[in-house]
Amino acid sequence: MTSATLAPASSGTTVQKVTGLRVLRSEWAKFWSLRSSWITLSVGVVLLIAFGAIASATYSPDAVTNQGPGPNSGVSDAVSLALTGVTFASLAVGVLGVLLSAGEYSTGMIRSTLAAVPRRLPVVWAKSAVIGPIALILTTIAALAAFQLGTLGLDGEKIALSLSDDGVLRSLTGAGVYLALVAVFGVALGMLLRSSAGAIAALVGILLILPGLASLLPDSLYDNINPYFPSNAGSAVYALQQSSDSLSPGAGLAVFAGWVALTLAGAAFRLVRTDA
Predict the structure, then answer these.
(1) Given a cut of 70, is residue 73 above it in pLDDT?
(2) CA distance 142 to 131
(3) Which of 27, 63, 119, 137 is deepest in the core (most CB within 10 A)?
(4) What is the DSSP letter of 115?
(5) pLDDT at res. 4
(6) Which of 71-75, 114-118, 177-181 has the highest mean pLDDT?
(7) DSSP 8-state symbol, 71
(8) Is residue 57 classed as helix, strand or coil in its secondary structure?
């Protein structure tokens, strides 16, 4: 009886080690290959520029004293007018972050992603590292554009400012930093909840509804915790003038970044401990 020696067949495929840089390149490619990325990001940029320019163009000193909603209610400087669209832009970039992460759970692509990256955690960091800088650069440019367009409508007004005025550039850059963190916040919510609809609802509730609901609390308690809500802490990052009951820009950035880090930690924990 004879025996045959079997040798493994060569597939001709080069297996490369999974590194953080390769995971980052993979997430970068996925981000730009999705049509929703282009659309949502463009919507955020357009909203930021358009609302700021319109608010500045329609500004009237007489309307500032009127109470109620509107771009002129309570506004006292050109930066606040230019950044009128930050709230709407934050929803757009937040939804973009959710779609980048939770979208893979909807399509089932997350199983392929985790099969390629068995250690899992680099997926969370890479998605955040891709969307954060992109949102930072584009929204900062949009904030600067909104301000520059707004100066045309505010020419001759008392509230008119220029980029060289104290705090202006810091506020406009702060808006970009805030929106970049919101995008990462969306990624974290999407990975944590694994549902696009659920994560978007949570995003809207946390950024827009939570501060309103908190006003139902007793005044003493509300005054103490109100500055620390994510959206209120985030607005302190880009506010040119600080009110007495708000955080400083540095403190606001630390608090909002803490909320984002906490959510990212929760998302990372669930990704590692539970099946996709």
Answers:
(1) no
(2) 16
(3) 27
(4) H
(5) 45
(6) 177-181
(7) T
(8) helix
The angle subtended at Cα 96 by Cα 253 and Cα 30, nearest 5°, is 115
**Which run of H or E residues covers position 237?**
helix 230-238
User: Which phi and psi (to 5°) does residue 194 adopt?
Assistant: 60, 30
d(CA 15, CA 116): 11
Q: Which of 203, 147, 210, 208 is nearest to 174 (CA)?
A: 147
Angle 221-80-200 (CA atoms, 0-180°, nearest 5)? 60
Instruction: Please give the structure tokens belonging to residue 87.
Output: 């709230």
Contact 79, 160 (CB under 8 A): no
Cα separation values, 163 from 37, 71, 166, Å: 31, 21, 8
Question: What is the per-residue pLDDT across 214-271, written as a single tens digit (0 to 9) for each?
Answer: 888 888 888 889 999 999 999 999 999 888 788 999 999 999 999 999 999 999 999 9
Q: What percent of the chain has pLDDT over 70?
A: 90
Is it the case that residue 164 has pLDDT exceeding 50? yes
Other Cβ atoms less than 10 A from the Cβ of 51: the count is 21
- Phi, psi angles (nearest 5°) of residue 157: -80, 155
Question: Distance between CA 234 and CA 31 in Å, rounded?
Answer: 25
Q: How many CA atoms lie within 13 A of 81 on its CB side?
A: 27
Query: For 83-209, where are the alpha helices, taking DSSP H only?
Result: 86-107, 109-116, 121-153, 168-193, 196-204
Radius of gyration for the alpha carbons in the chain, expressed in angstroms and rounded: 23
